Amino acid sequence: MARDGSERKNPGIEIAGIRVQPGGRQSFDLPGAQLYTHTPLDLPVEVICGRLDGPVLLVCAAIHGDELNGVEIIRRLRSLKAVKRLHGTLVLVPVVNLFGFIHRSRYLPDRRDLNRCFPGHAEGSLGSRVAHLFFSEVVVKCTHIIDLHTGAVHRENLPQLRAALDEGQVEEMAHSFELPVIVNSGFIDGSLRSAAHEAGIPVITYEAGEALRLDERCIVAGVRGVTNVMRGLGMLPARRRPWMVEPYVARSTSWVRAPSDGLFRPLAKLGARVRPGDLLGVVAAPFGGLESYLKAKSEGIVICVNNLPLVNQGEALFHVARFAAFDAVEEQLNAQQEAVEQDRLYEMTGNPEI
Questions:
Q1: Deepest of 177, 183, 188, 199, by most Cβ within 10 A of its Cβ?
Q2: Tens digits of per-residue pLDDT, 83-113?
C-alpha cells in the first residue's frame, strides 16, 4: 500500500526469464535435468499475478516424489475462484522432484533425498543441481513459502504444521493456517526450510497423510490452510466468519518403537489422546504365541502411526506429541474433523467460491 493509503499496482514478476505481468497467469516448464536417455524432465511452474501489489507466496509439493497429497492440494488451489481477487503473486510448483514422482519414490535416482540438498550447486550431484535450479530460479524470487509434505511410505501423519516459531513471520503464518497441531521444529541441514530461512524467507511445512495415498480430509484441510495463510498475508479478502480452530503448539514429541520383531497391530488411532500405561499396540511373533505390548510412557496426542504390520525391533511405530492443554487440543481436533467433512470442498470436483 502506498503512503497515501492507496493500493499499489503489482510490478509483476520474472522467473527463469519468463515475465508475468499484473493480472496475468502463465504456466511454463523450467528446463531442468534429464534422464540418461536424454529425455528432459522440466520443472512445471504456474504463476498467478494479481493486479495489486502484495507478497509473493510459493506453494510447492512433492520434494519427496511419492508424497501426493500436496500435488492434489495445488491442483485444487489453482482452480479456486478466489484467486481472481488475488493481491500479490502466487507461485505454484506441484512436483519439485519429478524423478521420484515418475518412479513413485521418495528419492532421486541416486538415492539422494532432495530435501537434504538445498540450496544446491550448479555443478554438484544430481540432487544438488535440481535443488540449485529450484532454489535459484524460483525460491529466492518469493517472500513466503508453504511446503507440502506427507508421512513416509506406510507412515501416516495427522495433519500438522512444522515451523520454527521463534521467527515472527513464521509464527504468524503457522497460526493463520488454522490447524490444531503445530510442532515447533528446528532446522535440518540441507532442507528447503533451512536454506530458505538462511535466505530470510519464512517457511511453514504442512505434513498430512501417507506417501502414495490421497487422503481427502488432509487435502481439504491443506487447501483451506493455504487460503487461510493467504488471507492472513492480505493476498485474499478476509473471511466473513471464522472457519475453524485455535492452534496449539506441541511442547515436545517422542517416538514409541517396536520392542521386538514380528506382526504389529496398532490399537491407538491417529489423533487419539493417550495417557501413561495406555496400550498403544501389540507386536506378536508370527510363528508362536509370544506377544510384546507397547504402552504409553506419558500423556500425549498420537500424530503419526506406522501402518505396515511387519516390523523390526526398534522401528518407529507411534509419534506422540505433548501439549500443555490436552483437553483443548482433543476438542479442537474433533472440531477440525467435523469442519472438514462439512466443507464444500470435501469430495467435490467443482470450483466453489471461498
A1: 177
A2: 999 999 999 999 999 999 999 999 998 889 9
> In the structure grid, which three cell numbers stand for residue 352, read together?
466453489
Cα-flanking dihedrals φ and ψ of residue 39, to 5°? -75, 120
Would you tell me how many other CB atoms lie within 10 Å of the CB of residue 310? 11
How many Å apart are CA 238 and CA 23, to the nearest integer? 20
- Our CA dihedral for 193, 198, 199, 203, rounded to 10 degrees, sits at 30
Write the CB contacts of 238 (distance below 8 Å, at least 6 apart in sequence): 231
Q: What is the CA radius of gyration of the chain?
A: 21
pLDDT exceeds 50 at position 2 = no
Give tens-digit pLDDT for 292-323.
Answer: 999 999 999 999 999 999 999 999 999 999 99
pLDDT at 241: 60
- Whether this model's pTM surpasses 0.90: yes
In whole angstroms, give the CA distance from residue 138 to residue 214: 26
Find, among 257, 298, 250, the residue nearest to 275 by Cα: 298
What residues contact 187, with CB distance under 8 A and at least 6 apart?
A: 164, 193, 194, 197
SS3 per-residue string spanning the chain: CCCCCCCCECCCEEECCEEECCCCEEEEEECCCECCCCCECCEEEEEEECCEEEEEEEEEECCCCCCCHHHHHHHHHCCCHHHHHCEEEEEEECCCCHHHHHCCCCCCCCCCCHHHCCCCCCCCCHHHHHHHHHHHHCHHHCCEEEEEECCCCCEEEEEEEEECCCCHHHHHHHHHHCCCEEEECCCCCCCHHHHHHHCCCCEEEEEEECCCCCCHHHHHHHHHHHHHHHHHCCCCCCCCCCCCCCCEEECEEEEEECCCCEEEEECCCCCCEECCCCEEEEEECCCCCCEEEEECCCCEEEEEEECCCEECCCCEEEEEEECCCHHHHHHHHHHHHHHHHCCCCCCCCCCCCC
Cβ atoms of 157 and 210 within 8 Å: the answer is yes
Confidence check: pLDDT of 3 > 50: no
**Cell numbers standing for residue 232:** 492472513
CA atoms of 318 and 157, how far apart (whole Å): 10
